[in-house]
Amino acid sequence: MNDLDRKQKTEFAGGRNECLDRIRAAATFFVVLNHTVQLMFPLHPDGIARMSGVRKLFGIGLFTAGRLGVPLFLFLSGYLLLPRKYDTGRIRRFYRHNLIPLLVSWEAWCLVYEAYMVWWLKTPFQAGQWFRRALFLEYEGMPHSWYIPMILGVYLFLPYVAMGVQQMEGKILFLLLGMVYLYRFCLESVNLLMDVFHVHPWNLRELQLDLNFSGDYYGFYLVLGYCFWRYREELGSIMKRAWAVILVTAVFAVSAVFTVWIQIRILQANYDYNVWYTFFIMPVLGSCAFLLLCRLPQPGVFRGLVTDISVHSFGVFLVHVMVIGVLLWKMGLWANLEAQCLLVTVLTFVLSVGVTKIGGKIPLLRTLLLVKNA
Fold first, then answer.
1. Where are the domains of the chain?
2. Which residues form the Acyltransferase domain (predicted)?
3. Which of 83, 89, 143, 222 is the most buried (most CB within 10 A)?
């Protein structure tokens, strides 16, 4: 038995998996942290120029930590959904129980966000704008609202991708993942850095290899999550060894420090960029975080709390930006921005879990919040 497959109970078989609950809870916190930092710190060239060295490190450091949330969520989706066996009936069931509820919930939340922006942010309601947003023809306007349309697009073809990757030999699967990583993640990152630092020894922009059918960046994260499931026993055995934990921790630390440093250098070069999930280090950071969170010991006293957060994670995702907005409006910005950022993050996290838990007791809200079964 290993940490990645504890008690031989996986969520897609109806049980709870402590490792996956822990990762989902951590990912939820990281997302809240990310948007709190985004809404409080001026992470652009002019803002960075006015910050002290400590504030730069604090802001960019927490922002980078927050960016781990999305890779972890995508890994979990790949881990849980791609190993399933799909036939015609199961594909229909997947669409009925995964895709359609998510779509209905999101359409309802588009209305909630419009009401929030009219009531709280005092922006005028425009029926045409709402209609375009409901049809995915325009950005919703909230900092987290890009994620659900992306997931809906992934879900459209996920059962068919699952049938394909399950048939792939391991060597072929890793070869294809390596090609996507090299040509999509690494190439884009090299182009970015050459632009920032005005170094152009080669023209690397005109990629002739069409990789759009590969699932692109986010499909890469999903398939990597599937690999964590496929090789869970091997990874679990390796991560029991002290040298493996030390190595993964060291890779994580070096990658995190580099990512923080390069973002500061990019902003100081007057280039407006915050690290995105297409940056070549992000899959490395996310993978290390996934493995370390599975290896992390969890005292029994926290088991119920972690499960509770995991069960309500989607609801927290949906409401947390509105909670941050209300808290910042009530509190204003303090001189000690660092302490306030930590306080707002924790308060937002706790309040969002509480709101989702209370709302989840009402059948309609439980459906709209997509509260998972405990």
1. 3-369
2. 18-354
3. 222
